[in-house]
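I hope you will forgive my troubling you with a question about protein structure. I should value your view on which stretches of the chain appear to form regular backbone elements. Here, with my thanks, is the record as I have it:
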Amino acid sequence: MPDTALGLLRRLETGPRGLTDTEAAARLAALGENTPAPLAGPSWPRRCVRALRDPFTALLLTLGLVSACVASWRTAAVILALVAVSCALRVTGERRADRALAALRGLVTGTATVLRRTEGAAEPRAREVPVADLVPGDVVRLGPGDLVPADLTLLRARGLTVREDVLTGESAPVPKHAAEPPEPGTDAQLCFQGCAVVTGSATAVVVETGPRTRFAAAQRAPVRREPSAFDRSVHGISWVLVRFVLLTPPLVLMAAAALHGRGVATLPFAVAVAVGLTPEMLPVIVTTCLARAAALLARTHQVVVRRLPALHDLGAVDVLCVDKTGTLTRNRPVVAAALGPDGRTDPEVLRWAAVGAWWTLQLADPPAPDALDEALLNAAGPVGEEHDGVAALPFDPAHRVATAVVAGSGLVRHVLVTRGAVEDVLDRCALPEDEHRRLLGLAACQAEAGLRVLAVATAERPAAVRPYRAADARGLTFRGLVGFRDELAPGAAEALRELTALGVTVHVLTGDHPATAARVCRDLGLDVGEVGTASAAMAAGGTGGVRVVARCTPEDKARVVGGLREAGHTVGFLGDGVNDVPALHAADVGIAPRDAVGVARESADVVLGRKDLTAIGHAVVAGRHSSANIASYLRVTLSSNLGNVLAMLAAGLLLPFLPMLPSQVLAQNLCFDAAQLAFAHDRPDRAVLRRPTRLRPPAFLRFITGFGLLNAVADLATFAVLALAPHGDAALDDRVLFHSAWFTENLLTQALVMVLLRTGRRVAGRRRPGPVGWSAAALAAAGLLIPLSPLGAALRMTGLPAVHYLLLAAVLGVYVLALAVARGRHDRRRSEGGPSQPEVQP
C-alpha cells in the first residue's frame, strides 16, 4: 500500500509546517542542488576521431601513409593536409553550432513558494526560494501558471489540473487530487517536475529532487541513434569505391610486372592512380557546403544546426512529423460555435456562459483562471455589468461542473449558471429521456467535428440565506452548447503550404482526440487523408495513408517514425518535450525549438530560434542547396576520375612506358581538386530545390560508370590521334610530348565535365557564368598553360605542336557532343520516370 500523507511526512522526517532553515541547508549539502545533471558535449579529440571514421577520410589517411612509406613525400604531404583540413572544418563547425545553441538557450532560474521556519518552534512562513535550493521534505504551494519544481506528493488540492505534456505528450490538463488513502496504481496524487499547473491550488511535499526525479530519469534514458539518410547514402557509395581503390594498386603492379617487368618501380604510379580515383576533396566540399549553409541559417533565421550532416538529411526529408499543440495551434482555445437546444446558433448561450465564467473568476477564492473561461470572455466581450455576483462554486473534477450564482430580477431571486461536461450538466437538467438522448447526440456531433464541447444550463431560485452548495444545481433549464477549437498558430497555414510545395508531407502525431486533430488540420488547409491511432498506422505499414495519428504515447511516436523510415522515407520530427526524445532519436533529423526542455534540445540535430514551421522550410531549402552542390561534386569528380583511371590502366598495358609520371598525376589532381572547390559556392537551379534531394547509391554508381566509360573513350581516342598524328611513331615514342598532350586533354575534359554534369545546370539564359563556370575556365587555362610554363618543365612537360592542339580540339568537340547527348537522354529518362531511379532526386 502507498504511504498515507502522515506516513509519507514521517518517512521524509518533515511535517505540514515544512522544514527549518537549518534542516533544509543540511539536506541541500548532503543531496545536492535540485538541477538535472548537465549534458556535456563530446571533446575535441572525440570529435576528431569521429571525423576520421568517414570512409573517404580514412581511405585518404591510409593512402597518405602508404605514399610516405614509398617515399612519395609530396603526395603524402598533400593527402595528409587534405585530411587535416577536413577534420578541422568539421570539428570547428560543430563547436560553433554548440556555442550558438548555448547562446540561444536563455534559461532563467525559477523560484518556488516554500513553507520554511527559522527554528523548530517558529511559525512557518511562505517564502520564494530558488528551485535549485529545494530538498526532499520541503512543503511547497502551487498555483495557476506555476511549474512543478520537483517530484511532489499532494497533501491538499483544490480544483488542481496539471499539464504533463513534457512527459506524456497529452495536451489536455490532468486532474490531480490528494487521495486519502492514496489510490494504488495511479498518479492522481503525484505531480512531476517540469509539468505546469493549469487551474486550482495545492500544498504538496517534495519527495525527489535533482537527478532522482522522473524528468531527470527520462533525460538519462539511453537511446540508440540509427544512421541517418546522409550516412546511409554516402557510406553506400563510399564502400563500393573504397573496394575499387584498394584493388587498383595490386592490379597495376601485377600487370606492370607481368608485361614490362616493372613491378616495384610502378608502386608510386599505382598509389597515384588510387589517389586519382579517390574523391579526396569530398570531406572538404561536404563540410564547406554544410558549414556555409549552417552559418547562413543561424545568421538569418536563428536556426542552429548541431550536426552538420543533418542539413543534407533536411534536404532529403519528404515526411515531417509534428505535434499539434504549440506547433499547428497555440496552447489556448477559442469559441467556434454557440448552439441552442435546437442546434441553431444562439448568442444567448454564449452570453450566459460568459456571465458564469466572469463571476466564477471574480468570486472564487483563490481565483482559478481557466483557458475555456478566458475564451468565453474574449468571445462575449464585457458581461460583468449585466448582473451582480452572489456566489461561485468553482470547477470540481469529481462533478465536472462549475456554477456561478448571480442576482436575478428583483432582490429576491437568484440565477444559477452552470457549465461543464455535457453528460454532467444534462444529468442536472429536468429533461425527458428522449430529449436527453437527442442532446447527447447533438454534443457528439460537435465532438466528432473536432470541437471541445461545454454545456450551459441555468435555473432561477429564491434568494438563499445559507451558502450555496453543489447539490443546489439541480432541475436546471438547458440553454445550449458552446464549442471550442484550438487557436491556430500564426503563419502555420502558410508554412504548411510552403512545405507542401517543397514536396514535404506533414504527418501530425498527437496525444489528442482524433477528431480534434483532424479539425485543426482541415482549418489549416492540410490534406488530412486518413485519421487513426498509432496501432492502426503501424498496421498500415509506416502510417500508409494515415496523416493524423492521434492518442500517441511517446513510444508510439518513435514507432511511427521508425515505420516511416523503414518504408523508405526520410523523416524529420519536431518535438519539444521529454516525451519526444525517443522520436527525435528515431528520426533522420530531430528538430526542437529553443524553448524546448533541455534534453530535447540536446537530442535534436537542429534547434529553432522559435517553434515555427516557416523556419523549417528555410532549413529544408538550405539543405537541398547544399545537397545539390555535393551531388554535383560527386557526379563530376567520380565520373571524371573513373574515366581517367580506366584510361591509365589501359595505357599502362599498351604503352612501353608509364602513361603519366606520378608527379604529373598529382599535379593534375591538385588542379582539378582546386577547381572543384567552386561547387561549395555554386547556385543550383530553382527546380532542384522544389523536391527532396537524396543520393541513391545504385543509380548513382550507374551514372558515374556510364559517364566514366565515356570519359575513358575520349582519353583512348586521344591516344589514337597521337599515334596517327604526323610523325605519329615519333610522337608516341616521345614520352614528354605524350605526357604533355594527355595532361592538357585531361584538364580540358574535366573542365567540360564540370560545366555539363553539374546538378540543375542552366546554361541557357544565364547572363554570366557562376562560380563553377569561372572555375572550369581557370582549369582549362591551366591545362593549356602549365606545359608551357617553368612549372611544366619541372614536371617534365613541354608545349605541343600546333597540329596536336587541332587534333585535341577535334577529339574534345566530339566528346562534348557525346556528353550532351548522353546527359539529355539521362534527364529525359529521369523526368519520364523511366525504369531506373535517378541517382539524385531530383
In short: The radius of gyration is 36 Å.
